[in-house]
C-alpha cells in the first residue's frame, strides 16, 4: 500500500509535476549508480527510489512507501529545472533557475579510476590473506551516495528533507543528529538512522569558503515526524550565496571506535567526483561507433553499463520493482 504524500506546502515540488497524484511521472527521473545499486532522482530534486547496498536489497528510499531524500527550492518561487548528465559520464546534474539565484545539484555514486587487482592476484595463486601493500585508493569502491548542492548565481535557500523507509517501509528506525566541530573553512554535520537490520549515516559538509563568519552557510538539522511513519526524519534549510556549497554523503554507519578515517572533506569529494567522471569517460571512449545518433547510442551504452552488476557481469532487467507507468495505473511489471 502506498503511503499518502504529506504536502508541506511551502517548498516541495517547485515544478508542479507532482500536483495531480503527489508523485512524479516516471519519465521525469534520471538514473545514477555504481554497478552495485542505483537511484532515481526526479527533476525537482527528490531522490525517490534506492535499494541499499545492492540492486536486489530492500529499498531504503521509495516515495510510494513514504521514503525520500529531497534537495530543492521552495515551490512559492517561479522555478525552472533542467536535468542532464555531465558529458560522457553517469554523473547527473539538476539545475534550478529562478529570479534570485541558480542552484546546481550534482548526484553520483563514486567509481574508482583503476580496476581492483584482487581477482588477478587470486588467479595468480596469491592467497587473499597474504600480506600485501595497502590498497591503492584508486582501486577502492566507495559505497557512497553523493549529493552536492552549489549556488552558482545570486543566493538561494536550499531545503533538505531526508526520510528513509527501511526494508520496504516495514522496519522502524531511530534517528540521531550528531554535531561535528568545524575545521578551518569547512563545517560538518552527521545524522545516523538505525533500523534492526541496517544503519546508515548522512554526512553533510559545508564549504564556508573565505566569507566572514556572519556570511557563512549555516546548516542545522531538525528532527521531523510525519503521520503513520516508522521513525523520525530530518529537515534543514541552508542559505547559500554564489560560490558556496553543501555536500551530502550517505554511507553505512560505522561506530566511531571502528572508524579509521571518518573525516569527509570537500577536497575528498572533489577527487571522488573527478575519479568518477574519469572512469565513465575512459569506459565510453572505448566505443568505436561514430554513426548516426552517436550521442544517444553512447548514452544507451552507458545506462546498460550502469545496470550491470559488476561482481557477476549480469545486466539487471530493471533498477526498480514494479514502479507503475502511471500511479495507480495497470501497466506494472515486477522484474524481480
Would you identify the CATH architecture? Distorted Sandwich
Number of domains: 1
Radius of gyration: 20 Å
General shape: globular
SSE pattern: EEEEEEEEHEHEEEEEEHHEE
Major sheet attributes: 15 strands, antiparallel
For the secondary structure, the number of strands is 17
User: Helical amount among residues, as a percent range?
Assistant: 10-25%
CATH top level is Mainly Beta
Describe this structure as you would to a colleague.
By secondary structure, the chain is mainly beta. It has a single domain, classed as Distorted Sandwich (Beta-galactosidase, Chain A, domain 5), CATH 2.70.98. The chain is built from 4 helices and 17 strands. The strands form 2 sheets. It has a 15-stranded antiparallel sheet that branches. The protein is globular and about 55 Å long.
Task: Offer a concise description of the structure.
With 336 residues, the chain is mainly beta. The chain has helices at 118-123, 166-169, 266-284, 294-306, and strands at 29-33, 38-42, 46-51, 59-62, 68-72, 80-85, 92-98, 101-108, 145-163, 173-183, 186-195, 199-207, 222-224, 233-241, 245-252, 308-309, 314-315.
Key attributes of the depicted protein:
17 strands, Beta-galactosidase, Chain A, domain 5, two-stranded antiparallel sheet, mainly beta, disordered N terminus, 336 residues
Give the topology.
Blueprint: E1 29-33, E2 38-42, E3 46-51, E4 59-62, E5 68-72, E6 80-85, E7 92-98, E8 101-108, H1 118-123, E9 145-163, H2 166-169, E10 173-183, E11 186-195, E12 199-207, E13 222-224, E14 233-241, E15 245-252, H3 266-284, H4 294-306, E16 308-309, E17 314-315
Antiparallel strand pairs: 1-2, 2-3, 3-4, 3-5, 5-9, 6-7, 7-8, 8-9, 9-14, 9-15, 10-11, 11-12, 12-15, 13-14, 16-17
Amino acid at each position: 500500500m502506498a503511503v499518502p504524500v504529506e504536502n508541506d506546502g511551502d517548498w516541495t515540488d517547485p515544478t508542479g509535476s507532482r500536483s495531480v497524484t503527489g508523485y512524479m511521472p516516471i519519465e521525469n527521473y534520471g538514473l545514477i549508480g555504481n554497478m552495485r545499486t542505483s537511484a532515481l532522482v526526479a527533476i525537482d530534486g527528490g531522490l525517490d527510489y534506492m535499494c541499499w547496498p545492492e540492486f536486489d536489497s530492500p529499498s531504503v528510499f521509495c516515495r510510494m512507501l513514504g521514503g525520500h531524500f529531497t534537495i530543492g527550492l521552495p515551490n512559492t518561487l517561479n522555478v525552472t529545472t533542467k536535468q542532464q548528465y555531465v558529458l560522457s559520464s553517469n554523473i547527473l546534474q539538476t539545475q534550478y533557475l529562478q529570479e534570485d539565484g541558480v542552484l546546481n545539484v550534482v548526484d553520483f555514486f563514486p567509481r574508482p579510476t583503476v580496476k581492483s587487482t584482487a581477482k588477478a592476484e587470486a588467479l595468480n595463486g596469491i592467497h587473499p590473506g597474504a600480506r600485501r601493500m595497502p590498497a591503492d585508493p584508486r582501486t577502492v569502491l566507495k559505497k557512497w551516495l553523493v549529493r552536492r548542492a552549489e549556488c552558482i548565481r545570486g543566493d538561494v535557500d536550499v531545503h533538505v528533507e531526508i526520510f528513509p523507509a527501511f526494508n520496504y517501509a516495514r522496519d522502524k528506525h531511530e534517528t540521531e543528529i550528531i554535531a561535528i566541530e568545524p575545521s578551518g573553512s569547512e563545517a560538518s554535520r552527521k545524522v545516523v538512522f538505525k533500523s534492526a537490520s541496517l544503519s546508515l549515516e548522512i554526512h553533510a559538509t559545508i564549504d564556508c569558503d573565505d566569507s566572514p563568519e556572519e556570511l557563512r552557510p549555516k546548516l542545522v538539522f531538525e528532527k521531523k515526524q510525519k503521520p503513520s511513519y516508522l521513525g523520525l526524519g530530518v529537515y534543514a534549510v541552508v542559505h547559500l550565496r554564489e560560490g558556496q556549497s553543501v555536500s551530502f554523503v550517505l554511507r553505512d554507519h560505522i561506530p566511531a571506535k571502528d572508524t579509521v578515517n571518518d573525516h569527509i572533506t570537500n577536497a575528498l569529494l572533489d577527487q571522488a567526483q573527478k575519479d568518477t567522471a574519469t572512469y565513465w569517460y575512459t569506459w565510453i571512449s572505448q566505443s568505436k561507433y561514430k554513426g548516426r545518433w552517436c550521442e544517444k547510442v553512447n548514452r544507451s551504452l552507458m545506462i546498460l553499463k550502469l545496470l550491470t552488476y559488476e561482481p557477476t557481469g549480469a545486466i539487471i532487467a530493471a533498477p526498480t520493482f514494479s514502479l507503475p507507468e502511471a500511479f495507480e495505473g495497470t501497466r506494472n511489471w515486477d522484474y524481480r
